[in-house]
Amino acid sequence: MTIGRSFYSALVLSTALLMVLGGCGGAGGAGSGKIEIKVATFGEFGYEPLFEEYEAQHPNIDLAPQVSDFEAHHKGLATHLAGGSGVADVVAIEEQYMPQFLQSKDKFVNLADSGAKELQGQWAPWKWEQGVSKDGSFVLGLGTDMGGLALCYRRDLFGKAGLPTDRDEVAKLWPTWEEFARAADRFSAAAPDAKFADSAGSIYTAILNQSEENFFSKADDSFIADRNPNLRRAFEIAGKIGAKGQTAKVTTYTQAWNVAVKQGSFAVMNCPAWMLEQIKEAGGNANTGVWDVTTVPGNSGNQGGSYLTVPKQSSHQKEAYDVVTWLTAPEQQKKIFLQSGILPSAPAAYQAPEVVSKTDPYFNNAPVGKIYAAAADSLQPHYRGPKDSVVRPKFGLALGRVENGKQTLDEAWNEAVQQAREAVK
Q1: DSSP 324
Q2: CATH code, 9-146+305-350
Q3: Taking the mean position of all CA atoms in its chain, how far away is CA 327?
Q4: Contact 366, 360 (CB under 8 A)
Q5: Residue (of 371, 307, 306, 369) closest to 337 by Cα position
Q6: Is 143 helix (H, G, I), strand (E, B) or coil?
Q7: Which helix (H) or strand (E) holds 130?
Q8: Long-range contacts from 47-53, C-beta under 8 angstroms, 24+ separation
Q9: Do residues 308 and 327 make contact, with C-beta atoms less than 8 angstroms apart?
Q10: What is the Cα–Cα distance from 328 to 368, expressed in whole angstroms?
Q11: How many separate helices (H) and strands (E) can be counted in the chain?
Q12: What are phi and psi for residue 198, nearest 5 degrees?
């Protein structure tokens, strides 16, 4: 999954209407005699060729894709679940929303009842854990991809700043995020006309995604943002880089970010596996070989990744479950990575020789399969909490105020904490 390769903004309204109609039908095209299974996703999942393959293997099934904007997709799902109609047969949910929808698990099919627990060994343990209830009895969704972390950097800008350009040597610059901040200082001193990173928010997100807990306690879902040292550390490291004017102040997936990538306005960005295609689209052919990929400080982390679920509204729950198990099987995950670079969450897929040996010419032939597979092997579960999607943006906006000189680091932190407390009351 990618959250932001494309937002498909023009399709948001039509997709919402399709989802409303999704619960009203069940047969395939008029007179076809086929069962139509609507599959609602967001961004890019790489499913198009797989849909054709599945339909060829199952001539009684028509798969109908519904693709929408990331936020509209999840908000629409919540609305249609509450309304009792309009949800597709198979619905993707991004990891940050899983705790929220687990609270509404009565609206979904428990995939454990269809034998999903027998498939548990297909996924990395932490990936399986995020898709089930705390007691493990309810399987809400089966994992698609994950967003193993790395950093992408521009070799030309590093060279101009007198920093190493070889990916292994670059990795040695930042064994920790504190060292990463010092590398930002070195870069800015030597290349004052360029920015080191895209945004403080991007750095902050990467650091957060290496922590077991951020805003909420895994034990009881209590709000811990105001006393979690990992959260404050991430905020301070990223905020100080932003306050020093070392970021381009561009938000990922916006037009300003696309332009900055194409023009080489910054040298480093947080780079989950699915980000590679976004960089290619924004950078264009002219930037082939300019970017490279290296290890993230701390060596691993996860940003993004999704699950496929079956809402109870589906009139074809068995057929929908069969689609889910097929699409999320290791063999299909491997195909998607080789076609689209979307990182599998199944060890049998991301450890496969074809995956590990994959290089990417656009990124100076970086061994992307090896880099992301290594990160995947050392990942730890990252707990979010049911109101993560409500609280998390408060801190991202606060960092933006620091970047733009509107608040000091302490002022922004205190305001974000207060806003977060209000949001979880």
Answers
A1: H
A2: 3.40.190.10
A3: 18
A4: yes
A5: 369
A6: strand
A7: helix 125-130
A8: 47/327, 47/336, 49/335, 49/339, 50/327, 50/332, 50/335, 50/336
A9: yes
A10: 21
A11: 19, 9
A12: -75, -45
CATH of domain 151-301+360-423: 3.40.190.10
- Total Cβ atoms within 10 A of residue 226: 15
Tell which phi-psi region holds residue 304, choosing left (phi > 0), alpha (psi between -120 and 50) or beta.
Answer: left
Tokens read off for 299:
């060596």
Per-residue pLDDT of the chain (425 residues; tens, 9 = 90+): 555 433 333 333 334 434 433 444 455 554 568 999 999 999 889 999 999 999 999 999 999 999 999 999 999 999 999 999 999 999 999 998 999 999 999 999 999 999 999 999 999 998 999 999 989 999 999 999 999 899 999 999 999 999 999 999 999 999 999 999 999 999 999 999 999 999 999 999 999 999 989 999 989 999 999 999 999 999 999 999 999 999 999 998 899 999 999 999 999 999 999 899 999 999 999 999 999 999 999 888 888 899 999 999 999 999 999 999 999 999 999 999 999 889 999 999 999 999 999 999 999 999 999 999 887 877 777 888 889 989 999 999 999 999 999 999 999 999 999 999 999 98
- DSSP state for residue 187 in the 8-state scheme: H
Token pair listed for 289 = 């070989």
pTM for this structure?
0.88
Question: For strand 151-154 and strand 266-270, is the pairing parallel, antiparallel, or unpaired?
Answer: antiparallel
**Domain residue ranges of the chain, discontinuous segments joined by +:** 9-146+305-350, 151-301+360-423
Those residues with Cβ within 8 angstroms of residue 419's Cβ, 6 or more apart along the chain or in another chain: 394
- Distance between CA atoms of 366 and 364, rounded to whole angstroms? 5
CA distances from residue 81 to 73, 321, 338 in whole angstroms, order as listed: 12, 18, 35
In degrees and rounded to multiples of 5, residue 333 shows phi and psi of -60, -40
Burial 136-145 (b: 16+ CB within 10 A, else e): eebbbbbbbb
Please report, for residues 100, 168, 295, 317, 421, the alpha-carbon distance to residue 16 in angstroms, rounded to integers and kept in the order given. Answer: 20, 46, 39, 21, 32
Show the tokens assigned to 319: 């057929």
> In angstroms, rounded to a whole number, what is the distance separating the alpha carbons of residues 312 and 310?
7
Which residues, 6 or more positions from 237, have their beta carbon under 8 angstroms from its beta carbon?
A: 177, 178, 180, 181, 203, 204, 207
Phi/psi of residue 36, nearest 5 degrees: -95, 125
